[in-house]
């Protein structure tokens, strides 16, 4: 039942993001979740024991990417359907910084959870600290008062 509701809501959300001519009006995408949509965040967590940066993970992708599957995650495929130009970068990658995260980023982490008691090696709440200030900074620069 839960899967059916997820698919139904996901499909209606996808249709809402498409214009009448089929073109996407999506400019960015932010992913939150666990190993089902993790695209490699755990590679950069020193204390994490949940890593997928070795074979057989990534066999169909061509190399291990840190995803807990063979190829793209559901979030990667959804991003392609919505017209997001590239695969989203993982937030914990040192090269993901500054304005780069305004066009979309993947915060998902295998074995993580929302509650502080879920997994002490991965604290999801720590991942969000830089995001609000970057968004406010960008929006503040876009608004020009007379």
Automatic annotation (TrEMBL):
UniProt keyword terms in alphabetical order: Hydrolase, Lipid degradation, Lipid metabolism, Secreted, Signal
Molecular function, one GO term: hydrolase activity
GO cellular component, one term: extracellular region
Signal peptide: 1-17
Gene3D superfamilies: SGNH hydrolase
Primary location group: secreted
Location of the protein in the cell: Secreted
One GO-annotated biological process of the protein: lipid catabolic process
InterPro entries documented for this protein: GDSL_esterase/lipase, SGNH_hydro_sf
Domain of life from the UniProt record: Eukaryota
PANTHER family for the chain: GDSL-LIKE LIPASE/ACYLHYDROLASE-RELATED, OS06G0560700 PROTEIN
Family: Belongs to the 'GDSL' lipolytic enzyme family.
Name of this protein: GDSL esterase/lipase
Native source organism of the sequence: Nymphaea colorata (pocket water lily)
């Amino acid at each position: 039942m839960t899967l059916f509701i997820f698919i139904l809501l996901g499909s209606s959300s996808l249709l809402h993001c498409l214009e009448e001519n089929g073109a996407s009006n999506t400019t960015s995408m932010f992913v939150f979740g666990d190993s089902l949509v993790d695209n490699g965040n755990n590679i950069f967590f020193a204390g994490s024991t949940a890593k997928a940066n070795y074979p057989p993970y990534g066999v169909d992708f061509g190399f291990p990417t840190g995803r807990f599957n063979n190829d793209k995650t559901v979030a990667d495929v959804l991003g392609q359907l919505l017209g997001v130009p590239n695969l989203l970068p993982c937030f914990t990658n040192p090269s993901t910084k500054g304005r780069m995260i305004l066009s979309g980023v993947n915060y998902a982490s295998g074995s993580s959870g929302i509650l502080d008691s879920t997994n002490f090696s991965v604290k999801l709440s720590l991942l969000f600290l830089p995001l609000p200030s970057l968004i406010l900074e960008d929006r503040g620069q876009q608004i020009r008062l007379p």
